[in-house]
Amino acid sequence: MNESMRGYAKIRYKRNQPTGTVRPMTEEEIKQKGWVKCK
Question: Higher pLDDT residue, 29 or 10?
Fold first, then answer.
């Protein structure tokens, strides 16, 4: 995981935990869902 994506890790994990599919989000998805990067 690179530095720029680190802030998304927890949201991504919690978001996808029920389905068990944890994967990197693209910039497009982040913008669509209106999520902001954690610092």
Answer: 29
Q: Quick one: tokens of 13?
A: 């994990």
User: Which residue, chain included where needed, has tokens 């693209």?
Assistant: 26
The residues, ordered by sequence, that sit 6+ positions from 9 with a Cβ below 8 Å of its Cβ are: 1
Whether this prediction's pTM lies above 0.70 is answered by no
SS3 of residue 12 by DSSP: helix
Instruction: Please tell me the predicted confidence (pLDDT) of residue 39.
Output: 47
Q: Is the dihedral of CA 1, 5, 15, 28 positive or negative?
A: negative
